[in-house]
Amino acid sequence: MANKPVIQSLLDTDLYKLSMMQVVLHHYPAAEVEYLFKCRTEGADLASLATEIRDEISHLCQLRFTENEIHYLNKIYYLKSDFVQFLKLFRLNENYVRIGRDEEGQLEIKVVGPWLHTILFEVPILAIVEEVYNRHFHADVDLKVGQRRLMEKTRMIKEHPMGGQLKLMEFGTRRRFGRRWQKQVLEHLNRSVPDNLVGTSNVYYAREIGLMPLGTMAHEYLQAFQALGPRLVDSQKAALDVWAKEYRGDLGIALTDVVGIDAFLRDFDRYFAKLFDGVRHDSGCPFEWGNKVIEHYQKLGIDTRTKSLVFSDGLDIPLAFKILAEFGEKTNVVFGIGTNLTNDVGVKPLSIVMKMVKCNGQPVAKISDSPGKTMCKDEAYLTYLRNVFELS
């Protein structure tokens, strides 16, 4: 029996893709970008799966938002009517995707084209690669292992002394073991710990299960402003400014690690600190990061209990409770957990990413607080970026 396509709806993506896409439509509809796929798992044979991955992407490019999906998006109050009407006409274009092998013979996927028309490729392509890989190399996995692990996680939440305070968001679409497994995870969480489950980043399952869709911005948004902003040194401030103008107080969680937390906090002055509801951690030591952010708010005279710290970097439940114990009395703490929920089934998940590497013909990069996460082959630009933001 043939496998069903991995992606069966354009809603099967993370909400932050749609929230960023609206900004692009309204402010930068002519921007041209390039995304590059990278697998960090040594020995993973993805190149042999290129044909199947290409076929899956071809199917993805046939999808349109349905009338029912458009009706659902119209009910998300911060998505503007002209943007939803644009989505009604939208379809991904396969011509923007290039699949082949790189110099080392590994799978290479590039997406090159208008930002407005390519922004929705990343999440489904990553989900496709992971699921196609698992079809071939982990077809015999017994999901009862994953179910036992999932039950242990929810039992831990229920039995922990601070369990009632844990706020959990499911963030695992991009690296899920499979589409059906993500649904099982969300349904179990919704049954077992409904008071802890704040929502999911996946718009399709938010609609299907009746959860809150969650997300604001990703790294690509701030990266793009390295080419779009008036000056490189002002790129983060420009990105935050445009976001605030677009959403007028909604979707107020800012991402902090595109050029590291120290450089971010220098730009995150009292105006932005009061304007945004909080910040998100996605690399580096969460405890060092949290202490720096809280100290920054305190220096600015802002009550940290009025702000949110969202942690989303490689979390599991035990680590979340340690972070909660450290910061729970000082501020509003929320956790976005991805791979440890949607790809913890007894086999090692792939470590895959797809990042923006160019905007309007210029290199852009992320220099995060974790070594090894940078994706930019232009060493001269990386040196320049480090110098501009006074990075070591």
From TrEMBL:
What EC numbers are recorded for this enzyme? 6.3.4.21
| Entry annotated with the keyword Cytoplasm | no
Broad enzyme group = ligase
**Coiled-coil portions:** none
> Which keywords fit this entry according to its UniProt record?
Glycosyltransferase, Ligase, Phosphoprotein, Pyridine nucleotide biosynthesis, Transferase
Note the InterPro entries from the entry.
N/Namide_PRibTrfase (IPR041525), NAPRTase_N (IPR040727), Nic_PRibTrfase (IPR006406), Nic_PRibTrfase-Fam (IPR007229), Nicotinate_pribotase-like_C (IPR036068)
Gene3D superfamilies from the xrefs?
nicotinate phosphoribosyltransferase (3.20.140.10)
**Pfam families cross-referenced by the UniProt entry:** NAPRTase (PF04095), NAPRTase_N (PF17767)
Question: Where does the record place the Nicotinate/nicotinamide phosphoribosyltransferase domain?
Answer: 167-391
Biological processes per GO annotation: NAD+ biosynthetic process via the salvage pathway
What pathway, per the record?
Cofactor biosynthesis; NAD(+) biosynthesis; nicotinate D-ribonucleotide from nicotinate: step 1/1
- Catalytic reaction equation(s): 5-phospho-alpha-D-ribose 1-diphosphate + nicotinate + ATP + H2O = nicotinate beta-D-ribonucleotide + ADP + phosphate + diphosphate
Q: Which GO terms describe its cellular component?
A: cytosol
The protein's PTM annotation reads: Transiently phosphorylated on a His residue during the reaction cycle. Phosphorylation strongly increases the affinity for substrates and increases the rate of nicotinate D-ribonucleotide production. Dephosphorylation regenerates the low-affinity form of the enzyme, leading to product release.
Q: Which residues carry this modification: Phosphohistidine?
A: 219
> What is a GO molecular function of this protein?
nicotinate phosphoribosyltransferase activity
Presence of the UniProt keyword Nucleotide-binding in the record: no
Start and end residues of each Nicotinate phosphoribosyltransferase N-terminal domain: 11-129
Please explain the role this protein plays, according to its UniProt record.
Catalyzes the synthesis of beta-nicotinate D-ribonucleotide from nicotinate and 5-phospho-D-ribose 1-phosphate at the expense of ATP.
UniProt record similarity statement: Belongs to the NAPRTase family.
The protein's matches in HAMAP family, at most eight in alphabetical order, are given as: NAPRTase (MF_00570)
Q: State the name under which the record lists this protein.
A: Nicotinate phosphoribosyltransferase
Q: Which species does the entry assign this protein to?
A: Aliikangiella coralliicola
